[in-house]
Amino acid sequence: MSYYDEIVNEIRAAIADGSYDEASFLLKRELSMPYVPAEFELELKHLEKDLRFRVSETKERTEASVESLLRKLKGRPESQLRAVSQLCDRNLRSITAELRDWLSKDPQPEAASLLIDALAEQEVGEEFTVVRGGVEYSFYGDAVTPVAKSGGFRTAFRLITEWLQKDPSLSEMARSLLVQKCYNALPMSYDAEEGPVLAKDCCEAVLNSMGLETRIPEIEAAYKEETDRLLS
Asked: CA 172 to CA 15: how far, in whole Å?
């Protein structure tokens, strides 16, 4: 089963279980990628349409208020992620004080990354401080580059696709790792110049995890070729 099949099945399962926030998060993540295969994109669009229909049917009964979502931010990790997934579609400028407080208290990492990306997308021009593993990072929402627009992300995504084009499954694993690394780096972002080494790290990590260490020299050669091209 390919990466795309697994994602489609995961989204379908989330919709069937009524986990609409999780399905929405997965759809947004996949559709925001710089490259989405046409057949996969069509399937995602169908799922997105189905999700919108189901949500609209139950909106009156299930739509949570901003106040209730903010309360959920103080809950368990999975509760925080669900709450942030919904808050990202709201006007974040109206609740910056609450979000600033939450970010400063060592929040669930994935939820924090998703919120920072949303603050960047909405260009919220206020200062926030996020605590990750006891380390503080201060940033302005409108000064952060959203993951999908990051030069380093886009460059690395393109290189991974080129270097592993003969192995779609490995390519998707490396790109998935790339997405994770870029989200985890927020509020920092990777410059385009960092793209090659980022792509190299993701490819080599995947090859190591799959017991394909003998193929690492291929990646190192491709990386050298790319850096030589940039320096020429």
From this structure: 23
pLDDT tens sequence across 167-201: 989 999 999 999 999 999 999 999 999 999 999 99
What distance in Å separates the CA atoms of residue 118 and residue 112, rounded to the nearest whole number?
10
132 closest CA partner among 83, 92, 188: 188
Instruction: Please check whether residue 99 is in contact with residue 90, taking contact to mean a CB–CB distance below 8 angstroms.
Output: no
CA-CA distance, 97 to 103, in Å (whole number)?
Answer: 10
Separation between Cα atoms, residue 136 and residue 146, nearest integer Å: 20
Bridge partners (DSSP) listed for residue 135: 132
pLDDT of residue 130: 93
User: Which of 219, 224, 227 shows the shortest CA–CA distance to 192?
Assistant: 227
pTM: 0.70
Express each pLDDT in 80-109 by its tens digit: 998 998 898 889 999 999 999 999 988 999
What angle (nearest 5°) sits at the alpha carbon of residue 108, between those of residues 29 and 197?
A: 55
DSSP string, the chain: --HHHHHHHHHHHHHHTT-HHHHHHHHHHHHTSS---HHHHHHHHHHHHHHHHHHHHHHHHHPPPHHHHHHHTTS-HHHHHHHHHHHTTS-GGGGHHHHHHHHTT---HHHHHHHHHHHHHTT--SEEEEEETTEEEEEEGGGSPPGGG-HHHHHHHHHHHHHTTT-HHHHHHHHHHHHHHHHHHTTS---GGGHHHHHHHHHHHHHHHTT-GGGHHHHHHHHHHHHHHHH-
